[in-house]
Amino acid sequence: MTPPAAIDPRGPRFAAWITSALLLLATLLGLTTAGVDHTVATFGWPANPGAAFLLRQVTEPAFVLALAIAGLFLWGILSPRTHPWAVLFRRVVRPRLAPPTELEDPRPPRFAQGVGLLVVGVGLLLHLIGVPYALPIATAAAFLAAFLNAAFGLCLGCQLYLLLQRAGLVGREGPAL
């Protein structure tokens, strides 16, 4: 099995800056609306308190933004080359930079996208069932990880991948044919 093509490590860091900004905004939105009882029009739906609660939860701005961020994390896992931040980096940013001095394995950053999806996904699910502050806590945790990557080049998800790889749980090569 051939290893995946190496990537410019500045690409994931660039994406982490944008992701950090989005996660910070989602956290702030979540903190301003968490625990606030909003009245929601049912738009002709039966007057069911459960439906009204769910409608309120899914229409909160923090939820909508966190759902979009989760979608971007999923996109980064399924098709990293077509991800909007990767395309923006390749077409706009990278041509203005010197060639990279080193390249990196794309699997750890891709795994990190999965970790981000898991963290934000858990926050989304807990928010839907009404756990107070679950969404802003989840987005704050993901923000911290994205910011560490963007500002200092410390990718927590990548480090987790490397630990799991050393344990033989991920990144194993297939059998030689």
Question: What's the short story on this structure?
Answer:
Helix content is 65%, strand content 0%.
Task: Looking at this protein, list some descriptive labels.
177 residues, mainly alpha, 7 helices, 0% strand, globular
Overall form: globular
Number of helical segments with 4 or more residues: 7
Radius of gyration: 19 Å
- The overall pLDDT average reads 89
Quaternary assembly: single chain
Alpha-beta classification: mainly alpha
Helix content: 55-70%
Main sheet makeup: none
Descriptive overview:
- This protein is mainly alpha-helical and 177 residues long.
- It has one domain (13-166).
- Helices cover 65% and strands 0% of the residues.
- The protein has helices at 10-33, 49-59, 61-78, 84-93, 107-128, 134-152, 156-166.
- Helix 1 runs antiparallel to helix 3 (61-78).
- The longest helix has 24 residues, at 10-33.
- The chain starts with 9 loop residues before the first helix and ends in an 11-residue tail after the last helix.
- 28% of the residues are buried.
- The model is unreliable at 38-46 (pLDDT under 50).
What is the strand and helix layout of this fold?
Layout lengths: L9 H24 L15 H11 L1 H18 L5 H10 L13 H22 L5 H19 L3 H11 L11
Helix pairs in contact: 1-3, 1-4, 1-6, 3-5, 5-6, 5-7
